[in-house]
Write a structure and sequence with these properties.
- The chain folds into two domains: 83 residues, no CATH class; 192 residues, Vaccinia Virus protein VP39 (Rossmann fold, 3-Layer(aba) Sandwich).
- The protein has eight helices and eight strands.
- An eight-stranded mixed beta sheet has the order 3-2-1-4-5-8-7-6, with helices on both faces.
- α5 links the parallel β1 and β2.
- The longest helix has 30 residues.
- The termini are far apart.
- The structure holds S-adenosylmethionine (SAM).
- S-adenosylmethionine binds next to α5, β2 and α6.
């Protein structure tokens, strides 16, 4: 009996701390205009339910408490703002209207990276419908309020519908030509590679490393990607000879590019470390790769 009382007391104390710590977070979100935000009085989150907890802890050098606190914030953001995160809810193509974007677990991993490294300035290659741009915008508003956060997103086509022009800066054109210049002119904390051509990804990583970019991320790098394997050589074949159904001239070769720059072991393994960067591939359905300059992890 006594034992149960003590356990209950500890649990209640933990919850109070969780809610208390979240006050600053709520204040910022409200200042940013999210007035309908409701705080849960019963945040019972156990470490076991947190997706990618060991990968995130290893990549970011964070402890259990930080993960619980951050997952609580993320769940609240998702629960309260589901209409603003319309497609970040499933990894199935059907739910995001034919596009393929971040799934909720990948989004949580990115949420942690943005929070831990204070990634206020994001450059995305491949906007498409703007689902991931919407996610970045909501994450920024939640974490930094109306502070000086900024999202640049580049695409060949203007198709976005989940973001408005005042949410981000859209840059229309070929990222191969535009990317190095954008990087030179602007301080960028996080680059999100989601456009796919092999040479574009290579140019993007070279320029990012030259600029000593803090965080370089890649979507579609999972070993078990439903449309894999993506052979590096395939990119150099004529389109009709590539063994890639439905991919036309695009194909997620990012894992090969990651291996070229951050360690060949990444072709088979999900973790790597160079002198400057720590790299984790989150093995979700499509796969999310994150390389972080270790300077920003202290
Ligand atoms: C997978 S979609 C991006 C999805 C989006 N990031 C999301 O999660 O909602 C890939 C996009 O990359 C764009 N793209 C491909 N090659 C490009 C290039 N060279 N420059 C700019 N955008 C490119 C395509 O037009 C397409 O809209």
């Amino acid at each position: 009996m006594m034992y149960h009382k003590v356990v209950d007391l500890i649990l209640r104390k933990k919850q109070e701390i969780l809610i208390g710590k979240s006050n600053a977070f709520f204040k910022k979100a409200k200042q940013a205009g999210f007035h309908h935000l409701e705080k849960s009085n019963n945040p019972r989150i156990s470490i076991e339910e947190i997706p990618f907890r060991s990968e995130i802890a290893k990549l970011l050098s964070v402890q259990e408490d930080w993960l619980i606190q951050t997952y609580y914030e993320y769940c609240l953001a998702k629960a309260n703002f589901e209409p603003l995160l319309p497609a970040v809810r499933s990894s199935r193509r059907a739910t995001d209207h034919g596009g393929k974007s971040l799934d909720p677990h990948e989004a949580f991993a990115l949420w942690c990276v943005i929070k831990k490294c204070k990634a206020k300035r994001i450059l995305e290659l491949g906007t498409r419908f703007g689902v991931s741009a919407r996610f970045f915008r909501v994450a920024h508003l939640f974490m930094f309020g109306l502070d000086d956060s900024k999202i640049y997103s580049c695409d060949l086509n203007r198709e976005y519908r989940y973001v408005n022009d005042d949410d981000f800066e859209f840059i229309q054109g070929d990222a191969k030509l535009l990317f190095p210049d954008i990087l030179k002119k602007n301080k960028i904390d996080l680059i999100f590679n989601d456009a796919h051509p092999y040479d574009l990804t290579k140019i993007s990583v070279s320029a990012s490393l030259e600029a000593q970019s803090p965080i370089i991320t890649f979507h579609d790098v999972g070993k078990n990607h439903p449309r894999s394997p993506f052979k590096r050589e395939a990119y150099f074949l004529p389109v009709n000879e590539r063994n890639l159904i439905n991919l036309a001239e695009y194909g997620p070769w990012e894992r090969h590019v990651m291996a070229e720059f951050f360690g060949q072991n990444l072709l088979d393994e999900d973790f790597s470390e160079t002198d400057q960067y720590r790299v984790q591939i989150f093995d979700s359905l499509f796969g999310l790769g994150v390389a972080i300059n270790k300077k920003y992890l202290t």
